[in-house]
Design brief:
2 copies of one chain form a homodimer.
Chain A (H helix, E strand, L loop, with lengths): L6 H9 L14 E10 H13 L6 E4 L22 E5 L2 E6 L10 E6 L2 H10 L5 H4 L6 E7 L9 E9 L1 H12 L10 E2 L26 E6 L3 H9 L4 E4 L5 E6 L7
Antiparallel strand pairs in A: 1-5, 1-10, 1-11, 2-5, 3-4, 3-10, 6-7, 7-9, 8-9
């Protein structure tokens, strides 16, 4: 998919499986979401996990049990409108598919969580360089030593993403991201990676390493991969998530998420 | 002067010279100002210097030529209501006095500039530790390598103040101070002091050194001492400032300066 499709046009292409890949940079200006789908008897604990850990798990939308629609986020069907899904059994990924129609159950609850694409767009609009974008790679992500608050079986270290900036741009990045608490908000750490248990910036646990110049300061944001780690720990018998980078594209404007 | 006097009561004590010293911590909740008084034929260039350099020189009030009152800031007389003044001739300090009534001229223009006391109060209210306050000393200040924009004869390196914080508190401090652009606003730098020409944090050019713990990050704010440096360079034949730490206490609430 190329050009600047509308969210609805992009979802139509996804639904027909004309587009089955990464959504980064597509439908610019619109919120893309991390997706977690769970049986409703697991939903309360996961909802509580999101409530306790809003930085890694900023909840933007949630469905009724069995209802594949999230009308607040657009005219969409969660069974077909994510380009690629991961299917989990007992906390382990067992399949990657482009539709979950065949797997749908009337007890499934969908959670849509904010994603860093929104704040990266705001950083770019603010004239800042986002290293993973200029290097055309995935953002580097790390399992930090920061422990999320547990909710029932859901427990996890916080996964963080890292973007390096000059000092002046770091200050500006903090200001810009503060306006967007529902897409991870301000960084949770800056400076020495070891203070949050990261031994080496050049060996991320997920994504790709990016260059960090000697005068730059690494900024660390709470990351939407965290709930996938919590899923692995909680081991629900059945769950579905989006595949990393293949997000649900919504009709909500990024600008609508700004708290001021 | 002890207790929590109102701004008017404090100014009355200053006017009678019952209080002739530091105003730090007095009249909590109210804006205190850096003062620069210049002949009106120097006022245009200094006003332009403030306009070009709002971070070190945030202009909060300004008088008409010869008028010792600043009604927007309170019922005050600038000739008597500052605890201690410095008198400058040709850019050099020549005297320190507790009243400038005998020196007043009908061509003098008063500039009142925002001061870090306001944002320090906001940081404390936010639960942060302000090191120079907990160590009961003056904040350390440094002549940085950052060059202010020049306006006629007024030119200066930027003087910066430094306060150390943990990474999480540094991020919060940036958020808090961003709300207060008229009292220096967000830091202008964080991290490596050498990047802004500071060789050693423990030997400040003004004020006192404070301890910086190994895991802390120094944050640097534009400082109201900068205009005094610009005065030294510009060498107006006559000028008056407050003496450091002995500020004009106004009736404006700190909270009224918050932009949101």
């Amino acid at each position: 998919m190329s050009g600047n499709p509308s969210p609805a046009a992009l979802r139509a292409a996804v639904r027909s499986q004309a587009h089955t890949g990464n959504t980064s940079g597509l439908a610019p200006g619109y919120v893309q979401c991390n997706i977690v789908i769970l049986p409703c008897d697991w939903a309360y604990d996961f909802l509580r996990f999101c409530q306790l850990n809003p930085r890694p798990c900023p909840l933007i939308g949630m469905s009724e049990p069995g209802d594949p629609h999230l009308p607040a986020l657009g005219d969409l069907d969660i069974r077909t409108d994510v380009p690629a899904y991961r299917v989990f059994e007992d906390g382990r990924p067992v399949d990657e598919v482009h539709s979950v129609e065949a797997l749908w159950r009337d007890d499934l609850v969908t959670f849509a969580l904010g994603c860093s694409f929104s704040f990266e767009e705001a950083l770019l609009a603010g004239g800042l360089e986002v290293r993973n974008m200029s290097q055309k790679c995935n953002v580097p992500m790390y399992r930090s030593s920061v422990t999320c608050a547990a909710a029932g079986p859901f427990r996890s270290q916080m996964v963080v993403s890292m973007r390096p900036f000059s000092a002046a741009d770091a200050i500006r990045a903090i200001q810009i991201c503060t306006r967007f608490p529902s897409v991870h908000g301000a960084p949770i750490h800056l400076g020495d990676p070891q203070l949050i248990g990261i031994a080496d910036l050049q060996t991320p646990d997920y994504g790709d390493a990016v260059s960090v110049h000697p005068t730059e300061i690494p900024l660390f944001w709470a990351c939407g991969v965290t709930p996938q780690l919590a899923l692995e720990t909680a081991q629900p018998p059945f769950a579905i998530t989006h595949s990393p980078g293949c997000m649900l594209v919504t009709d909500v404007r990024n600008s609508a998420l700004a708290v001021l």
